[in-house]
Write a structure and sequence with these properties.
- The protein is of the alpha+beta class and 65 residues long.
- It has one domain.
- It has helices spanning 13-24, 26-31; strands at residues 36-39, 42-43, 56-59.
- Strands 2-1-3 form a three-stranded antiparallel sheet, with no helix packed on it.
Length: 65
């Protein structure tokens, strides 16, 4: 299970992503560009300001058939 990363109030989605890259390193950094980022079950803009209680999900690309 992944560790929770709790950003400070007023953090944007892009700032959170930069923090995750810094915390978890190159392996996560390599897949982040291909991930979709969702906040509260909706696609998120990088400039979206996160609020307390927001749920952030990193969705890697998947394929199926």
């Amino acid at each position: 299970m992944a560790r929770a990363v709790l950003p400070a109030a007023g953090t944007t989605v892009s700032q959170l992503v930069l923090g995750l890259r810094s915390t978890y390193g190159d392996q996560l950094g390599a897949v982040l560009p291909s991930c979709s980022i969702w906040v509260n079950r909706l696609p998120a803009d990088p400039g979206l300001v996160l609020q307390g209680g927001d749920e952030v999900a990193l969705m890697p690309p998947v394929s199926g058939g």
